[in-house]
TrEMBL record:
Domain Dynein heavy chain tail residues, every copy: 1-138
Record protein name field: DYH5 protein
One CC-aspect GO term: axonemal dynein complex
Taxonomic lineage: Eukaryota, Metazoa, Chordata, Craniata, Vertebrata
GO BP field: microtubule-based movement
């Protein structure tokens, strides 16, 4: 069920700020970390031992699911790491006056460019574009008459 939800397209309002992106990936990380813990439990290892001993055909499906869960957990972990690194750059969008906010934009753009160039998972045009939309939405929300 969690993997099916993970594969679904994400639907969000157009006026959400960049903190929402971090919160989204933190929730995913929490779900997949919990699943990873369960996969390492003695109970699961015992079941896998029985399936292996029985040379069950289910092992192939199990391994495919395990790989998908591990990849999703790694993606969430990687994305949370990089999105946390943006926090100091997008905090002024929530807390400061228009001039301070605008002064923070070049650093934020450079940090996003860095993420695009080095992140294994967050470097897609869809994710980067969505992040820029959230930055713009927060600017508009905080100072609609200034921009």
């Amino acid at each position: 069920k969690v993997l099916a939800e993970n594969d679904q397209l994400r639907k969000e309002a157009d006026d959400l700020g960049p903190r929402v992106e971090l919160d989204y990936w933190k929730k995913k990380l929490s779900k997949f970390s919990y699943l990873m813990e369960q996969l390492k439990s003695p109970e699961v290892k015992a079941v896998l031992g029985v399936l292996t001993a029985a040379k069950s055909k289910l092992l192939k499906k199990w391994r495919a699911l395990d790989i998908r869960i591990t990849d999703a957990a790694n993606e969430a972990k990687d994305n949370v790491k990089y999105l946390y690194s943006l926090e100091k750059y997008y905090d002024p969008l929530y807390n400061n006056d228009p001039v301070s906010m605008l002064d923070a934009i070049p650093g934020l753009i450079n940090a996003i460019k860095m993420i695009q160039s080095i992140s294994q998972y967050y470097n897609t045009s869809e994710k980067i574009s969505s992040l820029f939309v959230k930055v713009g939405a927060q600017q508009e929300k905080k100072f609609p008459d200034y921009l």
